[in-house]
Amino acid sequence: MGYCYATASWGHGYGTEAARALLQWTFATLDLNRVQAEADTRNAASARILEKLGFVREGTLREDCIVNGEVSDSWVYGLLSRDWQRNEGASEQRLRGGTN
C-alpha cells in the first residue's frame, strides 16, 4: 500500500480516511490475510497513519530508496486480517456509543 499527497492536503485526515476505505475493501473483498506497507523513516506523519490503522512496525530497510538524490531508509509495516477485524470492530462499537 502506498500514497502520496500534495503538501496542501497534509494534516486533514485524507490519508487515514482513504487508507481505511482501501483496507476495508481489501480485507472484505479480496479476503487477504496480510497487507504490507512501507514508510520513509523521515516521514513521521505517514508512520502515524499506518499505526493509527493498526499496522505494526516490523523492521527497517536500510538505504532502500533514493528520493531526490538522497538515500533513505524505510520502515516496513504489516497488518493482519485478524488484527484489522478486531480493531475495526472496536472502532465501530465506540462510534455507536458502546463500551470496549
Structure description:
- This protein is an alpha+beta fold.
- The chain contains three helices and three strands.
- It has a single domain (7-95), classed as Gcn5-related N-acetyltransferase (GNAT) (Aminopeptidase), CATH 3.40.630.
- 41% of the residues lie in helices and 30% in strands.
- A three-stranded antiparallel beta sheet has the order 1-3-2.
Structure in a nutshell:
By secondary structure, this protein is α+β, with helices and mostly antiparallel strands. 41% of the residues lie in helices and 30% in strands. Strands 1-3-2 form a three-stranded antiparallel beta sheet.
Features:
single chain; 100 residues; alpha+beta; Aminopeptidase; three-stranded antiparallel β-sheet; 3 helices; 3 strands
Count of alpha/pi helices: 3
Shape: globular
CATH domain topology: Aminopeptidase
CATH first level: which class?
A: Alpha Beta
For this structure, what is the CATH homologous superfamily?
Answer: Gcn5-related N-acetyltransferase (GNAT)
**H-E string:** HEHEEH
Number of domains: 1
Rg calculated over all Cα atoms: 15 Å
Topology:
Blueprint: H1 14-30, E1 34-40, H2 44-52, E2 56-67, E3 70-80, H3 81-95
Antiparallel strand pairs: 1-3, 2-3
